[in-house]
Amino acid sequence: MEANNLDQPYISVYDRPKRPRGRPKIYTDEELKERRKETYKKHYENNKDYYLLQKSILYQLNKETQNARRRAYYQKHKK
């Protein structure tokens, strides 16, 4: 048997490493961002017609509200 040496730190039998809580991380945050970006790009390419239609509808609605504001401003400040 070895004699106790004061230079070596004491390691208890009961000090075991604890299991980490939660689900283990597979990807880093940067890898997750990149994966989400690629997934979004694939989804956008697969549904491009829908997104273009949605953009055109939103543009028309925005255009109508801006025209209504302009008409109201014009009527209010008309001499």
Give the helices and strands, then pairings.
Elements: H1 29-46, H2 48-77
Describe it for me?
- The mean pLDDT is 87.
- The chain is 61% helix and 0% strand.
- With 79 residues, it is mainly alpha-helical.
- The protein has a domain at 45-79.
- The chain contains two helices and no strands.
- The chain is elongated and about 100 Å long.
- It has helices at residues 29-46, 48-77.
Shape: elongated
Question: Which range does the strand content fall in?
Answer: under 5%
Beta strands, count: 0
Number of helices: 2
Short key terms for the protein model shown above:
mainly alpha; 79 residues; 2 helices; 61% helix
Summarize the structure.
The protein has 79 residues and is an all-alpha fold. The protein has two helices and no strands.
